[in-house]
Design brief:
There is one protein chain. The protein contains nine helices and eight strands. It is α/β, with parallel strands linked by helices. The protein has a six-stranded mixed beta sheet with strand order 5-2-6-1-8-7, with helices on both faces. The protein is globular, with a radius of gyration of 17 Å.
Length: 256
């Protein structure tokens, strides 16, 4: 069964960087079978109803400003998968998740920057998925759980976001890691490894520095979705964690 994954996508410039985290992403494909297709939830696609990307070929969205010119020349023309879109919609509906298909939207940087590092050839069909920050945390988990069966068909489920993502507190010129970010992430790690969803669903009240680490939840909820997709096995492995700009966390979780 294919694992599900949570990947932090960091800043858009991550796709140009050479560090331990990007090395892990670039070597990812060397350590696992090539997936039949990829289902990718991005924190940068927010909708009030779960949307399922159904583009024939995805455009590349440059949803950022002020970064290197090279980024605006990059493309990731992945093809869609109509049959998989239909199956996803049926699974979501069966799981009680209202959903719609979107045949127009391209891939935002939360999706294409990660995919370009993982599979630069863009030769694997992709189904992009939205997130909804207004849903309860338990329901985010259920969205992932509804799609867990796809893993048995060699479909790779990825959720892209960031556990500590507070742009107002970034220090672009510092290599020093802020202790509050580490304390929050250590609490999350403890609860994820124990598969303590009861505590995780209440992280806003229970986790140290939660308000600083997660001022808005759209980047955090992909972790719940990836966990939900890993519900059959409930085995969590932290493959990487590091920080940029003081507190922007770069982490990778595998669930199988």
């Amino acid at each position: 069964m294919m694992p599900s994954y949570f990947f932090a996508h960091g800043a858009p410039s991550i796709v140009l960087e050479d560090n331990a985290y990007t090395k892990l992403l670039k070597e990812f494909k060397d350590h696992m079978p090539k997936p039949k297709a990829i289902v990718l939830f991005s924190a940068h696609w927010e909708e009030s109803v779960q949307s399922v990307g159904a583009a024939a070929t995805y455009d590349t969205i440059y949803d950022f400003g002020g970064f290197q010119d090279e980024l605006y020349q990059m493309t990731y023309p992945a093809h869609g998968d109509p049959a998989l879109v239909e199956q996803i919609q049926k699974l979501l509906t069966s799981g009680g998740v209202e959903n719609v298909r979107d045949e127009q939207r391209g891939l935002d940087h939360g999706a294409w920057a990660v995919l370009k590092l993982l599979y630069p050839e863009a030769d694997i069909p992709v189904v992009a998925m939205s997130v909804n920050r207004d849903l309860p945390n338990a329901q985010q988990y259920e969205i992932g759980k509804a799609l867990a069966a796809l893993r048995e068909q060699d479909v790779l489920i990825i959720a892209s976001g960031g556990t500590v993502h507070n742009l107002r507190r970034l220090n672009w010129n510092s290599d020093e890691i802020n202790g509050w970010a580490e304390q929050f992430d250590h609490w999350i790690q403890e609860k994820v490894e124990a598969w303590d969803t009861e505590a995780l669903f209440q992280y806003e009240e229970l986790a140290p520095y939660a308000e600083m680490a997660v001022p808005t939840s759209e980047h955090f909820i992909p972790l719940f979705i990836a966990m939900g997709a890993g519900d059959p096995g409930r085995n969590a492995q932290l493959l990487h964690r590091s920080y940029q700009y003081g507190n922007l966390s770069l982490s990778c979780w595998q669930f199988n």
